[in-house]
Write a structure and sequence with these properties.
single chain, alpha+beta, 3 helices, 55% helix, extended
Length: 75
């Protein structure tokens, strides 16, 4: 169990992240409402400041969805 100080530190960091990236939270909310299902493919691409690209993807399974539901229940 996290202590209150740690929870407040995480909340402050999350608030700063949300302020720095205002489109991210609404994007993730829309994806969660409309696109997360068994068989959904999530692709991630990261480009370093030097221009190197890293790419991966994953196909969601029923057990992934169950994990997401558990995490949502904790919030």
């Amino acid at each position: 169990m996290m202590d209150f100080g740690s929870v407040m530190k995480v909340k402050g960091a999350w608030d700063q992240f949300s302020q720095n990236h205002p489109k991210f939270v609404p994007f993730m909310q829309a994806v969660g409402r409309e696109a997360i299902a068994d068989g959904t493919i999530i692709e991630i691409k990261v480009t370093s400041p030097a221009g190197k690209e890293y790419n991966t993807n994953m196909k969601l399974t029923q057990s992934d969805l169950e994990l997401f539901a558990l995490l949502r229940g904790m919030m």
